[in-house]
Amino acid sequence: MTQRRPTSFDIAALAGVSQPTVSRALSGNPSVSDETRKRVLEAAEQLHYTVDKNASGLRRQRAKTLALLFFEEGPETAVLNPFYLSLVGPMVRRCAAHGYDLLISIQQLSSDWHVDYEDSRKADGIILLGYGDYLEYRPKLEQLVDRGAHFVRWGTGGDGQLGMAVSSDNERGGFEATTHLLQRGRRQIAFIGTAGAGFPEVQERWRGYSRALHAAGIEPDSRLQVDSSPDEADGRAAAEKLLARGVEFDAIFAASDVAAIGAMHALQQAGRGLPEIAVVGFDDIPAACLASPPLTTVTQDAHAAAEALVDALIEAIETGKTADRILPVRLTVRGSS
Amino acid sequence: MTQRRPTSFDIAALAGVSQPTVSRALSGNPSVSDETRKRVLEAAEQLHYTVDKNASGLRRQRAKTLALLFFEEGPETAVLNPFYLSLVGPMVRRCAAHGYDLLISIQQLSSDWHVDYEDSRKADGIILLGYGDYLEYRPKLEQLVDRGAHFVRWGTGGDGQLGMAVSSDNERGGFEATTHLLQRGRRQIAFIGTAGAGFPEVQERWRGYSRALHAAGIEPDSRLQVDSSPDEADGRAAAEKLLARGVEFDAIFAASDVAAIGAMHALQQAGRGLPEIAVVGFDDIPAACLASPPLTTVTQDAHAAAEALVDALIEAIETGKTADRILPVRLTVRGSS
DNA sequence: GACGGCTATACATACGTATTCAAGTAGCTA
DNA sequence: TAGCTACTTGAATACGTATGTATAGCCGTC
Asked: Average pLDDT in the A30-58 region?
């Protein structure tokens, strides 16, 4: 027997007040007397009343919901980036703490995602997660700005980029990882990752790597750099390429954990794993400590990242203030170095 | 310059019809003439009109949204189960294909999650993800049923359980994994996992394991079974316990990948990894193929699982039909066996 | 040619909330 | 006691859509 769910009128009747008073009491409006508020809350409790999201959103033109947008370049079957996935939990919790819901969506780059969410009032703001160069998406971001939409993206900010950005201190991470390897006595440190244009984060990591080498009086050797996307097979191929080149190297700094793990596999297969060649990754995905040896890596704090993204977006929505944020990183030393 | 977003009245004015006609034209109501529908669609396109979710949901008392509910037993910092996380992507896509949105939420077991979602009309149905025994939550599920809520859960169904269930064929998976090890010539196969009451899935996997042993004329040995939760450290501890018992064994079947990887680490540390002791896991989490050696495991098809959950729930919402679903599993042989 | 049946559209309304505005009450001063 | 303020509460309304009911036009039939 499913009875109709209670409305604010039912609460009002039970508490002996009017519907507007119920609304005010529940939303914390200070003009309601303590005594009345107490009666209303009791009535609401008793009837298991909860505010109707649709009605509330319609009335106040705000959904109290954020949309999390995963960019996707490959086919539909692609696995989502594990670091991004690890942000989901903390984001949901942070949203809940602010009284927001989180809506998840995956979008092909080619689609009309820019009209989807903000427009249909399902969400008050958008969190964009996707590797790559945001310049490519600039026209879409411009549309968002035109429509007065709020959004944050994960990635490097600065230099005329649109909207807010939250990112790790990639340069610092690259510097620390490389310095760590130098301190371990490594001298010929290879870099796996696509440091070219279009991958600003990897580029920053490379700059940190380069700075650390210079600080130790070493000139970066272009023969020790191999392009690789964050992908196990790609990392493996990159390491094989390095081995095939015949250039001596005693360590690898990979711009992503997944590539680092692939590289370790290739090294082990060639019989040149530890202690001959040390490996350091970047990201600290959950699988990093499951690898063997467990991967030394630059930890991006998923909690901090998730909270910064959510906080920045909600602040923009509610106060209009916008500011980029750069999060500290930390080297996590495990067995692979 | 952010102008007001267009409503169905704006479209109506532009197309020279009434607002109801716009609504009918856009929702595919057959009583609208083709000619009129065409004009309406053009006008909608021109103004970038999209239906207001809140108003629509309020009017039709349906949100066109599903809620994905992660159960959580530990502290707030706990990492979400990787298999569940890998369902998120496919679920989102499947929901989108049905015209639904997906809302994500994490709930402590103790909280009032049962009133949250369905009740506030944020979602038309709930997908429950969480290890453990649903009997424990029975009172909450009963409340959901009482209120006429729709929900599916991932886990074993049957025997008087409430609501719909979708699960892998756990018994079959256990059987295949064990048979595979037997075919590889292994005879003393240990089982890592809590097979007792309260963990019906693990229990089923154990039954498959047991059936395979019997089929080979082997009696399961209770000294070869160790409890373990799906956790790296726990799996490691379980393997150490096995080693300490001094009972001979030449293979391990672990009821979860994470425990299997932990066990492999313990074995390697003790110098008793491959080829001495083979390991097979269950789940096929993304990290399984990153382990070294890559883990042989029982693959639960995340795509199929996600689609089955979403399809079952939407069918229940829209047609009222409910039916449990059991998904086939498949052994993925990698290096660890 | 009147009437029934059919099609396509318009009119009116309801969904449940939040907020504006008005009104009522009590407390206080002159 | 009149008048003013501060504090609560209620009445009325709007948010944008979907749908039940009514209406207008049209065709065909006896």
From this structure: 89
